[in-house]
């Protein structure tokens, strides 16, 4: 997953190594990734033709390496995102893919959402089954199972909302809070001339 996060940090444009470490670290839950987590990957990416680098002057006159994603690197990133095997279906893997939906084909977006929804339905049913098998359920055990089932059901609802916001062409529709407020204000203005 580190490779995908490092590559995706270059989607918005070239960055120097420290900025890549900071962005990737933030996404992965660290303040800044360690050099040993970033630079070996960048060198490997460069060797594969996924990233190009050039020296540019830094703010204090020193020279810095600036890294940019190549078309081949973007294609590799999409290939990795599309590949979504069962053993990689951890929460972080799913959320990373949703966060990068803008570079994925609509068909792949739908497959990822379908796969996750099936997984969550199975989890919710599993927790429900365990809870019903406990007789009488231990209070805290029952509470944990109820929470886990509820979390799976809530995420299914969130996925349904994502599907609604994806239009027929796969682009996000304007059904976001700001757009709703703007439409409501517009309607109110028409009623009160």
Question: How would you sum up this structure, described in words?
Answer:
The longest helix is centred in the middle third of the chain and has 28 residues. Strand 2 and strand 3 form a beta hairpin. The protein has two domains: 77 residues, Winged helix-like DNA-binding domain superfamily/Winged helix DNA-binding domain (Arc Repressor Mutant, subunit A), CATH 1.10.10.10; 98 residues. The chain is mainly alpha-helical and 193 residues long. Helix 6 packs antiparallel against helix 7. The model has no long low-confidence stretch (mean pLDDT 81). The termini are far apart. Strands 1-3-2 form a three-stranded antiparallel beta sheet.
Report the sheet with the most strands, covering strand number, pairing sense and barrel closure.
3 strands, antiparallel
Overall pLDDT confidence: 81
Number of domains: 2
Shape: elongated
Annotation field: number of helices: 8
> How far apart are the first and last residues' alpha carbons, in Å?
55 Å
Helix-strand string:
HEHHEEHHHHH
Name the strands of the widest sheet in spatial order: 1-3-2
Approximate helicity band: 55-70%
Topology:
Layout: H1 2-8, E1 15-16, H2 17-28, H3 35-48, E2 51-57, E3 63-69, H4 71-82, H5 91-99, H6 106-133, H7 139-165, H8 177-191
Antiparallel strand pairs: 1-3, 2-3
Which properties best describe this structure?
elongated, Arc Repressor Mutant, subunit A, 2 domains, three-stranded antiparallel β-sheet, 193 residues, mainly alpha
């Amino acid at each position: 997953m580190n490779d995908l996060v490092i590559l995706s940090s270059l989607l918005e444009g070239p960055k120097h190594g420290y900025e890549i470490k900071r962005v990737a670290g933030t996404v992965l839950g660290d303040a800044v990734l360690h050099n040993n987590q970033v630079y070996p990957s960048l060198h490997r990416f460069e060797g594969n033709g996924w990233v190009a680098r050039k020296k540019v002057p830094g703010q204090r006159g020193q020279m810095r390496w600036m890294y940019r994603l190549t078309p081949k690197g973007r294609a590799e990133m999409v290939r990795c995102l599309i590949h979504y095997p069962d053993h990689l279906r951890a929460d972080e893997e799913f959320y990373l893919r949703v966060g990068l939906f803008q570079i994925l084909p609509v068909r792949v977006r739908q497959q990822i959402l379908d796969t996750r929804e099936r997984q969550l339905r199975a989890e919710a049913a599993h927790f429900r089954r365990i809870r019903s098998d406990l007789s009488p359920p231990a209070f805290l055990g029952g509470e944990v199972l109820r929470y886990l089932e509820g979390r799976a059901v809530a995420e299914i609802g969130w996925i349904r909302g994502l599907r609604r916001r994806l239009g027929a062409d796969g682009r996000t529709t304007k059904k976001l809070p700001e757009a709703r407020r703007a439409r409501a204000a517009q309607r109110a203005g028409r009623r009160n001339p």
